[in-house]
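Action item from last week, closing it out:
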Amino acid sequence: MADTRDVLLVDGYNMIGAWPELSALVQSGMQEARDRLLERLADHQAYSGRRVIVVFDAYRVPGLGKTFAQSKVQIYFTREKETADECIERLVRDLSSKRRSIYVATSDQVEQHVAFGQGALRVSARELLIEIEESEREVQKRIQQDSAKLSRNSLDAKLSPELRKLFERWRRE
């Protein structure tokens, strides 16, 4: 069965350059910044239900390119002499369907216009960061609500103070 989920195509290095946390991590090494981006996008994918594909530009790196999955996020390193923009445009064409929406996350104005012209919806780096931060807050809120429910539903909370003392006395004997 074909995957009909909405797709979020992300220009990886564009996000790294635009998000303050990630651009600061570049000082420690690009791999660390890429890993943090992929971690946040994997969490966002789980929350949003969208299929996430991240494209990293390997334009000047010889070879055929590389595609793999990490935490269910698909990762593309472009082939030699292919830019991330070209790869994203190809993926928009390949993935276009009446049954799903395709979102392209980049702050590159030209790429936004090209993707929009092919029927994709554009999301700026800033908009994606805001969306991810909102989903992270929502997940934290749900976790806190669930743990509050669990503590309210514990057996200890249902016992009378006298019965609690009796059990405590038995436990110590």
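Closing note: Strands lie at 7-11, 51-56, 66-70, 73-77, 102-105, 121-123.
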